[in-house]
Hints:
Elements: E1 2-6, H1 10-21, E2 25-30, E3 41-44, H2 47-55, H3 58-63, E4 70-74, E5 80-85, H4 86-90, E6 97-100, H5 101-110, E7 116-119, E8 123-128, E9 133-137, E10 142-145, E11 147-150, H6 157-163, E12 171-172, E13 175-183, E14 191-197, E15 200-205, E16 212-220, H7 231-241, H8 249-255, E17 270-271, E18 284-286, H9 299-316, H10 336-343
Parallel strand pairs: 1-2, 1-11, 2-7, 4-14, 11-18
Antiparallel strand pairs: 3-6, 4-5, 8-9, 9-10, 12-17, 13-16, 14-15, 15-16
Helix pairs in contact: 1-5, 1-9, 2-9
Amino acid sequence: MNVLISGAGPAGLTVAYWLRRYGYSATIVERAPSLVVGGYKIDVRGAALQVLRQMGVHDAVVAAHTDMQGALLVDKEGKVINRMSGDDFGHRVGGDVEIVRGTLCQILRDHLGEVELLFGDTIQGITQSSDTAQVQFTKNGVREFELVIGADGLHSNVRLIVFGEESRFLRDLGLYLCVYTVPNYLNLDRMEIQYSELGRIAAIWSSRGDANARACFGFAAPSIRIDLRDRVQQQEALRTVYKGIGWEVPRLLEMMPTVSDHRRLCARRRTGGGVRHSFARFRGIRERDAALCRSQSGAGTQIGKVDEVRRKEVGRQLAPQAVDAENAGPHDGVDYQSLHRADHPSG
């Protein structure tokens, strides 16, 4: 059986691994020209840890974890107003592992084996018959598959093609997240610094083994409509929302035009629903944020990995029929690192 997976993120790479393990032929199509690196740090918890062990990548993920030692909360002048340990700040307990999303994707890809990867391409159309789906690609013509899996994120292209405009099914929560790489000019070592005002948060952090840092912005803007494929508009919206804000924000925004490690600078967070009634007519599966989105905290990766445990059982007897995924400024000489070590000498 030939299976097409749209999206080379954690969910898409994971389901490709299990399909191949059970003898199926998997092809992944990914809009980006290469594997997307960087991104936000995400937590792997609970049942998802067992998935990593079953895939044989748990040790590699643990070895590449962020090792975040703590966080400093500052005011608009950069004065530290609170300190938190890395586990407290990340809500980590027990064997929880935090890893940068792009690093996790690289580990999964290295472990993937013989899977066809079509980078720099997208699905333009899907025509279904009784036992196959003909897929029209932007660059690779028309090909036939027995199953199509949409693991292509919150604003899923597969969902759009099959079910129509997402506005019919999803509720916009008006929340945006933006992450990009910047020089580590504050000399952070496995640390995060965060400044917040009502409705907007800005942060900069560095993880273990990374010479650079990540700038992160999270804000609520329910009245703004941002084209998630229009980089210029995204940057302008970010400047508008953060106009007049203090701390390091002006300097971080100045660095924004030069960044290259993103596909969509901002992402609206939404809750899914409303398409289950049509799903029996679709020869495919939706995964992770393409199927649902429940939080801003990265839980989509957790959900996607746990779903793949269930997919293993499907994989043993997978038939060419639809499966319902719904059910199945300068810092003024402040040494932030020393400030944190004063409170956490063992960090």
